[in-house]
Design brief:
345 residues, alpha/beta, Quinone Oxidoreductase, Chain A, domain 1, Rossmann fold, 2 domains, 6-stranded parallel beta sheet, 26% helix, binds beta-D-glucopyranose
């Protein structure tokens, strides 16, 4: 599946040469890729970069594959189910990339498979270096395709907990805005920590409220004010500007607000910045952004998925398109949570 980056609707099923040996000694057969908002932005011509010297970019950064070939000492074996890490460190490298924290790259010269200057995983086969392939529990089967979005929230939780350690901190209440895959997986990790969890979304009925209830969290629709709680942690997963601002003003003292949604911009409204500042200062509030994930977060995400109820996880995958009807994978439908494109049965 390739696009000409920044060219709207250039997405197509095209022929690429076999993956080059320089991509790594591990050869993987792709089983499925997940589709997320970033893929749709890339297809819409708003985001994405081809590899240097090439016109097209193979997309797909949420992956699940099966190892076909791996060196003896790689820790991987033919048949293993693996997920490829998205980001690669910048070549300088910056202080973070130098120690494997490429998710915190400081100079922007990182690359990302399927997004920025490196072909992605939406191809029948790809090659990879073993340090960027993470094994998933074989019992998860196709649910392993949920690992990449889980790593995004594993990182968010890792950083929330690090910030929490600035003082005595015993969180009890969590608010998550958005019941898409990221919001639902953030709620799963919150429940795995034993926290009282509230999830807010626009829909009033259907699968999302049920999924929230089934992990022992409370579902709300409407505004954050209407939820009527002062959460210790807010994880904002929509990128909707009004919700982002509301999230910043509704946490409790010492509150931590983690922003994970990428907004499109272009919407402006009046904000009393002085009052916002006053409430943040007087309450020691922290608001921070979080993107991407490093290998530690992939391992934490794989452990979280292995602990989760498989029937709950399988309900997150609401649609599976095949290569014969691949275009369907990239058209959003009303009840979608996670759509996948299956490369094999
Ligand atoms: C991916 C991240 C990536 C980000 C920005 C997200 O959809 O999950 O891995 O860093 O897009 O490119």
């Amino acid at each position: 599946m390739t696009v000409i980056p920044l060219q709207k609707d250039s997405v197509d099923l095209t022929e690429l040469p076999e993956p080059p040996a320089s991509d790594g000694p591990v050869l993987v057969e792709t089983l499925a890729v997940g589709v997320c908002g970033t893929d749709l932005e890339i297809i819409n011509g708003d985001y994405g970069w081809a590899p240097p010297g090439e016109t097209r970019l193979a997309i797909g950064h949420e992956s699940l594959g099966r190892v076909m070939e791996a060196p003896e000492d790689s820790g991987l074996h033919p048949g293993d189910l693996v997920v490829g890490i998205v980001r690669r460190p910048d070549p300088v490298p910056c202080a973070n990339c130098a120690v494997g924290e490429w998710d915190m790259c400081r100079n922007g010269q990182y690359t990302e498979r399927g997004i920025k200057e490196r072909h992605g995983y939406a191809s029948e086969r790809y090659r990879i270096h073993p340090e960027y392939a993470v094994k998933v529990d074989p019992s998860l089967g196709r649910l392993g395709v949920l690992l990449e979005p889980t790593t995004v929230v594993a990182k968010a939780w890792d950083h929330i907990e690090r910030i929490g350690r600035r003082a005595q901190w015993q969180p009890s209440t969590v608010l998550i805005t958005g019941a898409g895959p990221i919001g639902l997986l953030a709620a799963l990790l919150s429940r795995q920590r034993g926290l009282e969890t509230h999830v807010l979304d626009r829909v009033t009925e259907g699968l999302k409220p049920q999924l929230v209830a089934d992990i022992g969290a409370t579902y709300h629709h409407g505004t954050i004010a209407e939820v009527g709680i002062a959460p210790d942690v807010v994880i904002e997963c929509t990128g909707v500007a009004q919700l982002v601002l509301d999230a910043m003003t509704h946490s409790t003292a010492d509150g931590i607000v983690c922003l994970t949604g990428v907004s499109s911009g272009g919407r402006t409204f009046d904000v009393d910045a002085g009052l916002l500042n006053r409430s943040m200062v007087l309450q020691n509030d922290v608001v921070f952004g979080s993107v991407n994930a490093n290998r530690r977060h992939y391992e934490a995400g794989a452990a979280a998925l292995a602990q989760a109820d498989e029937s709950w996880l399988s309900r997150l995958i609401t649609r599976s398109a095949s290569l014969d009807n691949w275009r369907d994978a990239y058209v959003r439908q009303a009840d979608d949570v996670k759509t996948i494109l299956a490369f094999s049965q």
